[in-house]
Amino acid sequence: MEVSQEPQLPNYMKDDHVSQETENLIASLPSEKDFMGYGLYNYKGCWYYPNTLQAVLDVQKHFKPRDTDIILASLPKGGTTWLKSLVFSVVHREKYQENQQIHPLLSQNPHDLVPFLELELYANSQTPDLTKFPSPMIFSTHMHLQALREATTKASSPCKIVYVCRGIKDTFVSGWHYRNMLHRSKMGQATFELMFDAYCRGVLLYGPYWEHVLSYWNGSLEDKENFLFMRYEEIIEEPRVQIKRLAEFLNCPFTEEEEENGSVEEILKLCSLRNLSNLEVNKKGTTRIGIDTQVFFRKGEVGDWKNHLTPHMAKTFDEIVEHRLRGSGLIFQ
Ligand code: PAP
């Protein structure tokens, strides 16, 4: 392995928080090593590290969303941090319109404002205290829809789910940089190629990519009232249109007055990569789950893959995605 120092493993990658029952389950599951040699297990079509699987099972068993809850879903590196910032700011905008200086995004990382169900809340407890978050509660998850549904179908009426995704090539490249930053080490070309191969086979945490995006795409086609399918590239291209679409979906559309007084632009500016990444809280320190806050912010460019993938790698990704999504109506350029 080319990693020069012992990697700082986040808890969700470990296997030290697993019940005997889950251990028995894991022993019966298909397994593979991830590109760095850590064990992944396939449960109902999706790959997990042991601690993540334990937490997913706990979410499925114990989390019961209320109809006012909002769940943000994504693959890692699909636009999670941005979506958290935007939804939090849109939903809670009335509270801070008089005094933007006290806006929580200025002093807290977006991941601490919108907690992950399985990576934070249910990672250490089957009965986390959910009352400490402002109402309406906004949660997030990287679980794919079939896995999430095991929890949401317990609710008496559906809650709103917003999904964001990004083309596979930029998601992959963003994930590569994230892993380098996370492990505080520059991994070499051989590891890059191993990660590429794992991605192509779908063997990565919450993968395969195509199953994940398809599960939410189909969900959004079946139930437009409760599912919103968003794309990172579209938010970059037409932020005003997309944020208004988001607000309408969440039943808090911008009023004419808000549009005139610049509320939309203010939120976009507050949530911009430039603004967030320059805040003290996002330059140093860690999130509640112990990840350096700065690793969530990098370039945020569409097409950065061109600087990292060979033409052959790019073509391989395009062909896989085209093949896997064929007939679904979901197309990535
Ligand atoms: P996560 O799933 O681990 O939370 P996620 O936020 O989905 O990660 O992805 C991080 C990517 O979003 C980074 O992209 P890059 O590697 O291509 O640069 C990061 O720069 C980008 N990002 C984070 N915050 C924002 C933001 N406010 N606006 C636009 N892009 C952002």
UniProtKB/TrEMBL annotation:
Protein keywords: Transferase
Top-level taxonomic group: Eukaryota
One Pfam family hit: Sulfotransfer_1
MF terms in GO: transferase activity
Domain Sulfotransferase: residue ranges: 67-329
Entry EC no(s): 2.8.2.-
The keyword Transferase is annotated on this UniProt entry: yes
Keyword DNA-binding set for record: no
PANTHER family: SULFOTRANSFERASE SULT (PTHR11783)
Entry similarity comment: Belongs to the sulfotransferase 1 family.
Full protein name: Sulfotransferase
